[in-house]
Amino acid sequence: MRKDISLYMILGGLLLVGHSFFAETFPERGLERFLIASQLFLFILFLNGHVLTVFLSNKFDIYLGQVFLGFSISKFVLSGLFILYIQSLGGAPISKSFILIFIFSYFTYLTTEVILLIKKLNKEG
Fold it and tell me: Are 101 and 31 in contact (CB under 8 A)?
Protein backbone atom coordinates (compact mmCIF):
# COMPACT_ATOMS: atom_id res chain seq x y z
CA MET A 1 0.00 0.00 0.00
CA ARG A 2 2.91 2.37 0.68
CA LYS A 3 4.10 1.93 -2.90
CA ASP A 4 0.66 2.86 -4.18
CA ILE A 5 0.50 5.99 -2.04
CA SER A 6 4.01 7.05 -3.03
CA LEU A 7 3.13 6.50 -6.70
CA TYR A 8 0.07 8.73 -6.30
CA MET A 9 2.20 11.40 -4.62
CA ILE A 10 4.78 11.33 -7.42
CA LEU A 11 2.07 11.38 -10.07
CA GLY A 12 0.27 14.23 -8.31
CA GLY A 13 3.47 16.26 -8.17
CA LEU A 14 4.19 15.66 -11.85
CA LEU A 15 0.66 16.64 -12.86
CA LEU A 16 0.83 19.79 -10.74
CA VAL A 17 4.17 20.75 -12.29
CA GLY A 18 2.79 20.08 -15.76
CA HIS A 19 -0.31 22.16 -15.10
CA SER A 20 1.86 24.96 -13.67
CA PHE A 21 4.12 24.84 -16.74
CA PHE A 22 1.19 25.24 -19.10
CA ALA A 23 -0.30 27.99 -16.91
CA GLU A 24 2.92 30.02 -17.11
CA THR A 25 3.45 29.31 -20.80
CA PHE A 26 -0.10 30.19 -21.83
CA PRO A 27 -1.43 32.71 -19.28
CA GLU A 28 -4.04 33.99 -21.73
CA ARG A 29 -5.77 30.59 -21.73
CA GLY A 30 -7.00 30.94 -18.14
CA LEU A 31 -5.08 27.92 -16.91
CA GLU A 32 -3.85 29.59 -13.73
CA ARG A 33 -7.35 29.91 -12.27
CA PHE A 34 -7.97 27.16 -9.73
CA LEU A 35 -4.71 25.43 -10.65
CA ILE A 36 -3.81 24.14 -7.20
CA ALA A 37 -7.42 23.56 -6.15
CA SER A 38 -8.18 21.36 -9.14
CA GLN A 39 -5.02 19.27 -8.89
CA LEU A 40 -5.39 18.89 -5.12
CA PHE A 41 -9.03 17.88 -5.56
CA LEU A 42 -8.13 15.16 -8.06
CA PHE A 43 -5.23 13.92 -5.93
CA ILE A 44 -7.35 13.59 -2.79
CA LEU A 45 -10.28 12.13 -4.71
CA PHE A 46 -8.25 9.37 -6.33
CA LEU A 47 -6.02 8.62 -3.35
CA ASN A 48 -9.02 8.26 -1.04
CA GLY A 49 -10.86 6.23 -3.65
CA HIS A 50 -7.96 3.83 -4.09
CA VAL A 51 -7.36 3.36 -0.37
CA LEU A 52 -11.07 2.84 0.31
CA THR A 53 -11.38 0.41 -2.60
CA VAL A 54 -8.59 -1.79 -1.29
CA PHE A 55 -9.76 -1.48 2.33
CA LEU A 56 -13.42 -2.27 1.64
CA SER A 57 -12.66 -5.20 -0.65
CA ASN A 58 -10.37 -6.75 1.99
CA LYS A 59 -12.47 -5.96 5.05
CA PHE A 60 -15.95 -6.91 3.85
CA ASP A 61 -15.15 -9.65 1.31
CA ILE A 62 -16.52 -7.68 -1.64
CA TYR A 63 -15.14 -8.14 -5.13
CA LEU A 64 -12.46 -5.57 -5.89
CA GLY A 65 -13.99 -4.81 -9.30
CA GLN A 66 -17.39 -3.99 -7.84
CA VAL A 67 -15.96 -1.58 -5.30
CA PHE A 68 -13.77 -0.02 -7.99
CA LEU A 69 -16.77 0.45 -10.29
CA GLY A 70 -18.79 2.11 -7.53
CA PHE A 71 -16.00 4.50 -6.65
CA SER A 72 -15.30 5.22 -10.33
CA ILE A 73 -18.86 6.37 -10.88
CA SER A 74 -18.78 8.51 -7.74
CA LYS A 75 -15.42 10.05 -8.76
CA PHE A 76 -16.78 10.86 -12.20
CA VAL A 77 -19.87 12.55 -10.74
CA LEU A 78 -17.85 14.44 -8.10
CA SER A 79 -15.40 15.69 -10.75
CA GLY A 80 -18.29 17.00 -12.83
CA LEU A 81 -19.80 18.68 -9.80
CA PHE A 82 -16.41 20.23 -8.98
CA ILE A 83 -16.21 21.74 -12.47
CA LEU A 84 -19.76 23.09 -12.09
CA TYR A 85 -18.84 24.54 -8.70
CA ILE A 86 -15.79 26.27 -10.14
CA GLN A 87 -17.93 27.64 -12.96
CA SER A 88 -20.50 28.98 -10.48
CA LEU A 89 -17.87 30.92 -8.52
CA GLY A 90 -18.15 33.64 -11.12
CA GLY A 91 -15.59 35.65 -12.95
CA ALA A 92 -14.47 34.68 -16.41
CA PRO A 93 -15.78 31.38 -17.72
CA ILE A 94 -13.54 28.35 -17.42
CA SER A 95 -11.42 27.95 -20.52
CA LYS A 96 -11.46 24.85 -22.69
CA SER A 97 -7.73 24.47 -22.06
CA PHE A 98 -8.38 24.21 -18.31
CA ILE A 99 -11.02 21.54 -18.89
CA LEU A 100 -8.63 19.59 -21.15
CA ILE A 101 -5.87 19.64 -18.52
CA PHE A 102 -8.37 18.67 -15.82
CA ILE A 103 -9.66 15.73 -17.89
CA PHE A 104 -6.11 14.69 -18.79
CA SER A 105 -5.21 14.62 -15.09
CA TYR A 106 -8.42 12.72 -14.30
CA PHE A 107 -7.71 10.01 -16.86
CA THR A 108 -4.05 9.79 -15.83
CA TYR A 109 -5.10 9.08 -12.25
CA LEU A 110 -7.76 6.65 -13.48
CA THR A 111 -5.26 4.75 -15.63
CA THR A 112 -2.85 4.55 -12.70
CA GLU A 113 -5.59 3.22 -10.44
CA VAL A 114 -6.60 0.57 -12.98
CA ILE A 115 -2.99 -0.57 -13.37
CA LEU A 116 -2.49 -0.80 -9.60
CA LEU A 117 -5.71 -2.74 -9.09
CA ILE A 118 -4.89 -5.16 -11.92
CA LYS A 119 -1.53 -5.83 -10.26
CA LYS A 120 -3.33 -6.46 -6.97
CA LEU A 121 -5.75 -8.85 -8.64
CA ASN A 122 -2.88 -10.73 -10.30
CA LYS A 123 -1.15 -11.15 -6.93
CA GLU A 124 -4.31 -12.58 -5.37
CA GLY A 125 -5.11 -14.93 -8.25
Answer: yes
- Classify the C-alpha dihedral 6-8-11-15 as positive or negative: negative
Q: What is the DSSP letter of 94?
A: P
Give the number of other Cβ atoms within 10 Å of residue 41's Cβ.
19
Residue 63 phi/psi, 5-degree rounding, is -60, 135
CA dist 69 and 88 (Å) reads 29
Per DSSP, the three-state class of 112 is helix
How confident is the chain (125 residues) per 10-residue block, as mean pLDDT?
Answer: 89 92 80 86 94 88 87 95 88 83 94 92 81
Distance CA 15, CA 106 (A): 10
